[in-house]
Amino acid sequence: MGRGIGFVLLLIVLAVGGFLYSRQIQSVSPTGTAPTVMVDVIGVRNDLTAMAQAERRYWATNSRFASLEELRANGDIHIPTRPFYTYSVAASENAFRIVATYSGSDPKAPKRFSVDETMKVTSD
Question: Most buried of 17, 24, 55, 101 (most Cβ within 10 A)?
Answer without folding.
Answer: 55
